[in-house]
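Dear Dr. H.,

I hope your travels went smoothly. While you were away I took the liberty of generating a structure for the chain from your last submission, since the lab meeting agenda had it listed for discussion. I wanted you to have the full record in hand beforehand rather than looking at slides cold. The sequence, exactly as received, is reproduced here:
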Amino acid sequence: MTDAPRYAMHEYPIAIRPTDIDALGHVNNAIYLEWVQNAVLSHWHAFADADAIAAFRWVAVRHEITYRKPAFLDDGLVASVLLERVRRESAYYETVIRRGDECVAEVRSRWCCIEADTKRPARLPETVIAGFPLACAAGAPGQGRN
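The corresponding predicted structure, in token form, is as follows:
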């Protein structure tokens, strides 16, 4: 049995808008879902080829969010996106949202690949999966939870 591939981390900068702030003065929890969707789709657009981007879409199936610290309007946040594995029509991601070295939220999510034309679930071709960059070495950033 072979080890699963270890994919490289993808960084996605997050811009906080005034409308993201709730009555408590911090980012509303619902906004994190938007950030995760944008970060995961940024990963897809950064590494998939043009033909794959035209042929497939992604639909969120599940998100599990652990909120660690509140985020505020002037915070500089970055989402670190890690493709954990692809199995059949599903892609499993871990996204960590950070303010500097501080973890603000951790999100584990599952996404379903669908054909753009039919809107039906589709297995991502091995040639597309092979295009996702691998991490340089074991223990590299993104190779486990912090």
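Two observations you may find useful: The first helix runs from residue 29 to 47. The CA atoms of residues 16 and 73 lie 6 Å apart.

With kind regards,
E. W.
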